[in-house]
Write a structure and sequence with these properties.
single chain, alpha/beta, Rossmann fold, 2 domains, five-stranded parallel β-sheet, 11 helices, about 15% strand, binds phosphoric acid mono(formamide)ester, EC 2.1.3.2, Asp_carbamoyltransf_Asp/Orn-bd
Amino acid sequence: GQHILSVNQFDLDAITQIFNVADTMQVYTRREKRTTVLDGAILGNLFFEPSTRTRVSFGTAFNLLGGEVRETVGVSNSALAKGESLYDTARVLSGYSDVIAMRHPDAGSVEEFSKGSRVPCINGGDGPNEHPTQALLDLYTIKKELAFHQRDINGLHIAMVGDLKFGRTVHSLAKLLCLFKDIRFTFIAPTELGMPDYILDTITNAGHQFNIQDSLDGQFDADICYQTRVQEERFPSKEEANKYRGKFRLNQAIYTQHFKSKTVIMHPLPRDSRADANELDNDLNQNPNLAIFRQTDNGVLVRMALFALALGVENKVKDYERAVPWHY
Ligand code: CP
């Protein structure tokens, strides 16, 4: 199996295959059927940085395919705290696992780790660099949300809002969207937290268009509004991050003022619910265009597909009845 380190390794055919397999996983995430295709397989789930949904959805995806999950959480609980290299850690842990999912605060760390690994490694976020599985589940969600409105991804207008400098999910998603046709990007961020130049170059080189704004002024005919959190943990200090927290809030009134009625609202989550940040207000929770929890549900489908493909079992999945009823 191949490592999954960056969205750069996917083309449209690969994405279509992942999404087709993800579609077939719905009977398991809805608990209508069960499968044991990964019976006996072990996932090493290594999260050296905080995570709720990526860590738990990788684990859930693996469990739903019949496999077992071993977790290591935090640098201080591992021998990395004693100065062991990522290479050695990978060499060791890959002897205990069939596949590894990993998050680490340093850009390039998962790639470095993968060099010592004897099993496929999946990047669950490497510092400010990339979060490829999030981008795939975001794209899968965009495809489904647009299909609901009888649209497809080509010709999409997406507004990305907030901390576009340190938000790795927007980097990966922007690169993935470049594979499609006639994508329009509107980047709404404080000048200091704008989209990195290398992403802007990728967009231009792929023949797409972008606009840059430093405030939420004006009307956006965006199909998708992708909101982000100020990535406080990547700033030199909390005070520095606080300068930007709460600057690009979205609530129902602002949404109605600036976006069209069908604009789908996305956010990789977690959203910062503290009163001084609150970038995505709870008053949007009843808005039918709020797709944030459809994103988190889709994350399990996409990660199941990635495990099935990485371990070469996508055509071996068999269904069994579940003894335990489930009300989805
Ligand atoms: N979207 C995302 O990566 O969330 P977690 O940090 O909870 O994994």
